[in-house]
């Protein structure tokens, strides 16, 4: 089940907040952030999100605010336009045009392993293209996310989330991936076979 857009946002009170909007419930979780502990707090928050995913069966989009743009941002629009871009489209992509007409540019897609790792990292754009994507997203106020899952790419989800250690490994690996590549967040696209 897809839910409305949720997110993790940086607030001036030094807190990461995760918001999940479901059909009959809404949850907000917060983790205090202390200097030098951003990654730890983000990992704890993502772990809590994954637990809610198990309990309520939701698959929201999570965004981690990492930059601000002087240009119009998704918060300024009455609706969201999410553009999924599969790996076979990266080379010929006009990143500027895609980001200009999207609120969220989503790189499709990596896969969670049953042990909590990340498979198919070769599906990320090469460094030069990723830099173009980040620049275009910054210029147009779009969010750049990486997707996990999708039809035929969700095999690892079910077993991974049932195991505490695997779930923790995955959350840490996902948070490290977001930080390393300067993504705004993650789109969980848990589909068949799940």
Structural overview:
By secondary structure, this protein is of the alpha/beta class. It has one domain. It contains 5 helices and 9 strands. Strands 4, 5, 6, 7, 8 and 9 form a 6-stranded mixed sheet that branches. It has a 3-stranded antiparallel sheet with strand order 1-2-3, covered by helices on one side. Strand 1 (7-11) and strand 2 form a beta hairpin.
Summarize this structure as a short list of keywords or feature phrases.
9 strands; three-stranded antiparallel β-sheet; 194 residues; 32% helix; alpha/beta
**Mean of pLDDT:** 75
How many individual β-strands?
9
Unreliable sequence segments: 1-37, 58-67
* Structural class based on helices, strands and sheet pairing: alpha/beta
| N- and C-termini, Cα separation | 12 Å
Total of domains: 1
- The arrangement of helices and strands along the chain is EEEHEEHEEHEHHE
Kindly provide the radius of gyration, computed on alpha-carbon positions and rounded to a whole number of angstroms.
Answer: 16 Å
Tally the helices: what do you get? 5
Overall, the morphology is globular
Helix content: 25-40%
Portion in strands: 25-35%
State the major sheet. 6 strands, mixed
Describe the structure concisely for a colleague:
The protein has 194 residues and is α/β, with parallel strands linked by helices. It is 32% helix and 26% strand. The strands form two sheets. Strands 4, 5, 6, 7, 8 and 9 form a six-stranded mixed β-sheet that branches.
């Amino acid at each position: 089940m897809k839910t409305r857009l949720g997110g993790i946002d940086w607030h001036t009170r030094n807190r990461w907040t995760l918001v999940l909007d479901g059909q009959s419930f809404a949850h907000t979780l917060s983790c205090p952030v202390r200097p030098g502990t951003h990654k730890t707090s983000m990992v704890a928050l993502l772990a809590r999100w994954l637990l809610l995913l198990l309990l309520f069966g939701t698959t929201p989009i999570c965004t981690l605010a990492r930059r601000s743009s002087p240009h119009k941002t998704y918060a300024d629009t009455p609706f969201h336009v999410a553009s999924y871009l599969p790996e076979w489209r990266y080379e010929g992509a006009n990143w500027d045009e895609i980001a200009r007409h999207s609120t969220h540019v989503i790189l499709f897609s990596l896969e969670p392993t049953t042990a909590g790792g990340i498979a198919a990292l070769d599906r990320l754009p090469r460094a030069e293209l990723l830099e173009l994507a980040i620049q275009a997203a910054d210029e147009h106020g779009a969010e750049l996310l990486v997707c996990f899952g999708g039809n035929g790419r969700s095999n690892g989800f079910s077993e991974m989330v049932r195991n505490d250690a695997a779930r923790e490994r995955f959350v840490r690996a996902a948070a490290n991936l977001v930080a390393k590549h300067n993504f705004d967040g993650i789109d969980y696209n848990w589909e068949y076979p799940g």
